[in-house]
Amino acid sequence: MNSHDDLYTTIATLSEGIYRDKGSKFLAYAWHIDNESEVKKHIEFLKKAHPSARHFCYAFRINPENEYWRANDDGEPSGSAGKPILGQIKSFNLQETLVVVVRYFGGTLLGVPGLIHAYKQATIEALGQAKKETRIISRMYKLSAEYSQLGDLMKFLKDNHIEYDSPLMGSIVQISVRIPKSKSGFFETIFVEKNWLIPD
Fold it and tell me: What is the pLDDT of residues 39-77, one digit of tens each?
């Protein structure tokens, strides 16, 4: 069993939502992202797909262990776009999630309260129907063993249901393993005692 501290929720696939108000159209796109460098790629994709749109406002939240987020109003009045988008990502309790809302201006000013409502509703539409998945916060360890110890190491990993990658066979065997965060200290101690752990 994994501790609740090890678990977080993200979205599994691209999800879209739309909200209209007084001729303005707000198209929300929600993606799973692993890091901040993916944000620019998605925004560039949307700018090519929507060349006549006026604003591309966004927010994202990554790193479930050390909360990291950004919100961007892209020319809308301060706090009227990025913040309500981020508020919904947090409200849905999602991590590793980016939402970009593309706005087509309809000719009528909505005012700051109207904009906050529109960006919030478009985001709710996208996140509400997004397929969610639960993931585990884990630590990666590199282990090594002599060939004579390999049987013991593999038995230990299997007995303790530890995820591992295919071993690298060289003069010794190297293997990468993933341990849920809450159990990492316990297993790290054992790896050191058995002389399996390769220091970072």
Answer: 999 999 999 999 999 999 999 999 888 889 999 999 999
Other Cβ atoms closer than 10 A to 8:
18
Q: Is 136 exposed, middle or buried (0-12, 13-18, 19+ CB in 10 A)?
A: middle
Q: Is the pLDDT of residue 121 over 60?
A: yes
26 and 49 inside one domain: yes
Same domain for 169 and 95, yes or no, is no
Q: What is the DSSP letter of 94?
A: B
This prediction has a pTM of 0.78
Domain that holds residue 185: 138-193
Residues 121 and 146 in one domain: no
- Number of structural domains, the chain? 2
Helix (H, G, I), strand (E, B) or coil at 199: coil
The CATH number that applies at residue 149 is: 3.30.70
Residue 13: what residue type? T
198, part of any domain: no
pLDDT digits (tens, 9 = 90+) for 173-196: 999 999 988 898 999 999 999 999
Q: What CATH number does the domain containing 60 carry?
A: 3.30.230.30
Given a contact cutoff of 8 angstroms between Cβ atoms, the answer to whether 98 and 38 are in contact is yes
Question: Are 57 and 72 within 8 A, CB to CB?
Answer: yes
Q: How far apart are CA 169 and CA 147, in angstroms?
A: 9
Instruction: Please calculate the CA angle 58-139-96 and round it to the nearest 5 degrees.
Output: 10
Q: How far apart are CA 31 and CA 13, in angstroms?
A: 6
